[in-house]
Amino acid sequence: MPEPRANPIADWLQAQPQLVLDGALATELERRGADLNDPLWSARVLLEQPELIRQVHLDYFRAGADVATTASYQASFEGFARRGLSQAEAAALMQRAVALAAEARDQFMQEPAAAGRRRPLVAASVGPYGAMRADGSEYRGHYGLDEAALMDFHRPRLQVLAAAGAELLACETIPCLAEALALARLMDELPAGSTRSGWISFSCRDGAHTSQGEDFGDCVAALDGFAGVAAIGINCTAPQHIAALVASARARTSKPIVVYPNAGEVYDPVAKRWQPHAAGDHPPAFADQAMQWAAAGARLIGGCCRTGPADISALLQRWSGARG
């Protein structure tokens, strides 16, 4: 018989209503002085300031996050090769991204604040093909590649990350079904002894469609039968679309729904910066919106770009008050 596939998400959700994810990594790195104006984005910090990444992970654990998502979103063999790194050096940096999160977790578990907490999880971030291109195409799709070509791109680094010691794989900001299916098939092919489950989350343009324009509910249904896909959902999408997307997902799968939207600002892929909210536009507090997503049926909840440890802490306080 094949070895059973571990599912840490299911284990956690048997014990508590929601699994609390972390917030943005790159946003926090920039707030602490890191220069991310680079095709490698946060993966640049793996090369230059790895201790800063460890500290951000630690601060999210202190804020209450149950999961740390690693600094490997924009880490790819192709991207590191353009920086002059060999295959072995690139693989070592991807492994280092997982190790930094694990080191932060180990440090946190020695602190008084960890008393009574379950040991948090580490999710190895698997960014989309568009992240390697560094042109914002993870928010557009239309790569011009078929599913087989996307599998060829993702396979080498997925194998490295799956063997690096994380409990989960976080396949995130996926703009189209072809790439989601490529990742789902690769996850189901991973060998016993490696990390073989995690989530796939799409970037979406509105409350019904992926960034490429496909029906989001249809995409969710297409992933429902894959054993390695332990949760399905949305990330780096405007928060006002999340409730409708959660409702669509719940109608098409019994798997847990994961959501970690951005803070609602608009990203300019040419200038590579987030445009601030318009004057007078004051969206509801992140924690208040997260309560709505939970009520709609989301089980894994956190934040993406422009969110931080304070948002995760506020989310935990809001839940504690609601449950108290």
UniProtKB/TrEMBL annotation:
Name the domain of life this protein comes from.
Bacteria
Which NCBIfam families does the record cross-reference, listed alphabetically? PRK09485.1
Do the record's keywords include Zinc? yes
Gene name of the encoded protein: mmuM
Q: Which residues form the Hcy-binding domain?
A: 7-319
Alphabetized Pfam families for the sequence: S-methyl_trans (PF02574)
E.C. designation(s): 2.1.1.10
Please name the GO terms that the record assigns under molecular function.
methyltransferase activity
PROSITE patterns, A to Z? HCY
What's the protein called, per UniProt?
Homocysteine S-methyltransferase
Q: Name one GO biological process term.
A: methylation
Q: Which InterPro entries does the record associate with it?
A: BHMT-like, HCY_dom, HCY_dom_sf, Hcy_S-methyltransferase
Classification via Gene3D superfamilies: Homocysteine-binding-like domain
Keyword line: Metal-binding, Methyltransferase, Transferase, Zinc
Residues that bind Zn(2+): 236, 304-305
Q: Which coenzymes or cofactors are required?
A: Zn(2+)
